[in-house]
Design a protein that fits this description.
Largest sheet: none
Order of helices and strands: HHH
Helix content: 40-55%
Number of strands: 0
Shape: elongated
Length: about 90
């Protein structure tokens, strides 16, 4: 495991100390978890951006055409939803 020295404002350190105590963890554990969550969010955004670049409107519409044009079952409907109308959601 790597060791890292950080310089942070006293106000942030005080908040970290309070939150760590409240959660029953060390400041180190709180910071490591926070950094891991931030990395996960950034990596997810990059992944989704890459997937979006590979996508195409034509392939998306081809998949949608395979979906049956029927109203959903009553228990699977949004309250006050309008009935299905072919072509209503396309250009």
């Amino acid at each position: 495991m790597a060791t890292m020295s950080l310089r942070i404002p006293e106000s942030i350190h005080g908040q970290l100390k309070m939150l760590a105590k409240k959660d029953g963890v060390s400041i180190n554990q709180l910071v490591v978890t926070a950094v891991a969550e931030k990395l996960s969010a950034l990596m997810t955004a990059e992944y989704l951006d890459e997937r979006a670049r590979r996508g195409s409107r034509e392939r998306f519409e081809a998949v949608l055409k395979k979906v049956p044009a029927v109203d959903p079952d009553p228990w699977d409907r949004w309250k006050d939803a309008e009935p299905y109308e072919p072509g209503r959601l396309t250009k």
